[in-house]
Amino acid sequence: MSKWHKFWQLSTAERTTFVQALLILPAVALGLRGLGLRRLQALLAGLSRLDDIQPLEHPAPQAQQAQGLARMVRAAAANGPYRATCLPQSLTVWWLLRRGGIAGQLRLGVRKEANCFEAHAWVEVEGVVLNDQQDVPQRYPPFTQTGPPQKASLP
Domain spans of the chain? Predict the structure, then answer.
């Protein structure tokens, strides 16, 4: 089946997410190079209004939506003109989730393999890994804090 045929078989929401990811992935990669992770994540957090959204009583549809979003970002990274690595993909998933009112956590982990350090990024919602295998936290032990810098509160 051709890629175009597969694309047109997606729902309208899936096609929209796929196209958004095609546009956002290279922008995120450029932002990482120019701003660095913490500043880019803070900028992206400011461009979403997650703080205004109340948690849903029934998280099951939210989890399905989050997994579908991560699948479309992964497909855009694999099939689009920009082949994004795990960090731009994960930041894109994290930000699109926030824009959709879903609080995802960006996770970064490292491991030492054959005298080399390897780093990896993924996104979790309620402890469920979205854009990787479920055992990724065991393979790449995550750092404890990977969120944007917190604003200091004044006394």
Answer: 3-50+59-139
